[in-house]
TrEMBL record:
Underlying gene: glsB
Protein name, per record: Glutaminase
PANTHER family: GLUTAMINASE
Organism: Phytobacter palmae
A Pfam cross-reference name: Glutaminase
Binding site for substrate: S66, N117, E161, N168, Y192, Y244, V262
Cross-referenced Gene3D superfamilies: DD-peptidase/beta-lactamase superfamily (3.40.710.10)
Membrane-crossing residue ranges in chain numbering: none
Reactions this protein catalyses: L-glutamine + H2O = L-glutamate + NH4(+)
Coiled coil regions in record: none
GO molecular function, a single term: glutaminase activity
């Protein structure tokens, strides 16, 4: 790894994808996100052997948005038995936009997977049922995983999402109508929006998600976060559902388990080797970072990595 990778290699990859600027669109359905400059571009890699590489805007914090869906699932896996989770949410790709209501009606309130909004809202409903302070608990976990004590929620983004929450509220209420949502909708939405509004940098994200490359633990962690089997399961869900309706296209181009967020971040895992975080706020039509995908594609081609 060290012989083929260094910060200059990453800088060169950034220059390769920079011309894509202007081809995507910064998310505007959450008004507080529109203020972010589309110019931003960063990458960070943390390896299981303890190395760290970075280039571009890798230290600048941004809204992690749906990357938080992986973290909330991990917390649920720590507090619930397997059956309790997977009777309420599925494990299959949805083939639909992340905020779609269509399947939910047809499939009687059971979301296809935990990485679309409906699935993440069910997971947040579970956390509300079993944790005394779900927001505080998430902060503690993320601070521990990232080894960074000042990770925080961006309250402006969280409020902006709550003020424009019609669709997510509709999803939650539809699930409630099918008996798959137990707590107060507004309370759970607030938790979910706060998780989405965590502000983190690529470096912090690569470190946070390193446990998924290292069988559930990481060199900087005192104890495992997940068992090796749970880790494989989360990676499998990321590979099949982490990029919404473009999971197949992403598998074709990049070939790694990954999760995207509408803040323009993507985290990708090379099992047994490294966690990669990229950030470029302009999105494609599926809500995935356009240059971020191109950057991961260029990187995996250069390194010759894929899980397939
Ligand atoms: N907070 C966003 C939403 O609920 C997250 C979506 C995303 O990042 N894909 O719409």
């Amino acid at each position: 790894m060290a012989t083929v990778m260094d910060n200059d290699v990453l800088e060169a990859l950034l220059e390769q994808v920079r011309p894509l600027k202007g081809q995507g669109k910064v998310a505007d359905y959450i008004p507080a996100l529109v203020t972010v400059s589309g110019d931003k571009l960063g990458i960070a890699i943390c390896t299981v052997s303890g190395e760290q590489f970075q280039a571009g805007d890798a230290d600048e914090r941004f809204s992690i948005q749906s990357l938080s869906k992986v973290l909330s699932l991990v917390v649920a896996m720590n507090h619930y038995e397997e059956d309790e989770i997977w009777t309420r949410v599925g494990k299959d790709p949805s083939g639909q936009p992340f905020n779609s209501l269509l399947q939910l009606e047809i499939e009687q309130g059971k979301p296809r997977n935990p990485f679309i909004n409906a699935g993440a809202l069910v997971v947040c409903d579970m956390l509300q049922s079993r944790l005394s302070a779900p927001r505080q608990r998430m902060l503690e976990i993320v601070r521990k995983l990232s080894a960074t004590p000042d990770i925080a929620f961006d309250s402006v983004v969280a409020r902006s999402e709550f003020e424009h929450s019609a669709r997510n509220a509709a999803i939650a209420w539809l699930m409630k109508s099918f008996g798959n949502f137990n707590n107060d909708v507004a309370t759970v939405l607030q938790n979910y929006f706060h998780y989405c509004a965590l502000k983190m940098s690529c470096v912090e994200l690569a470190r946070t998600f390193l446990f998924l490359a290292d069988k559930g633990t990481a060199p900087h962690l005192a104890e495992p976060v997940l068992t090796p089997q749970q880790t494989r399961q989360v990676n499998a869900l990321m590979a099949t559902s982490g990029m919404y309706q473009n999971a197949g296209e992403f598998a074709w181009r990049v070939g790694l388990p990954a999760k995207s967020g509408v803040g323009g971040g993507i985290v990708a895992i090379v099992p047994q080797e490294m966690a990669i975080a990229v950030w470029s706020p302009e999105l494609d039509e599926a809500g995935n970072s356009l240059a971020g995908i191109a950057l991961l594609e260029a990187l995996t081609q250069q390194l010759g990595r894929s899980v397939y």
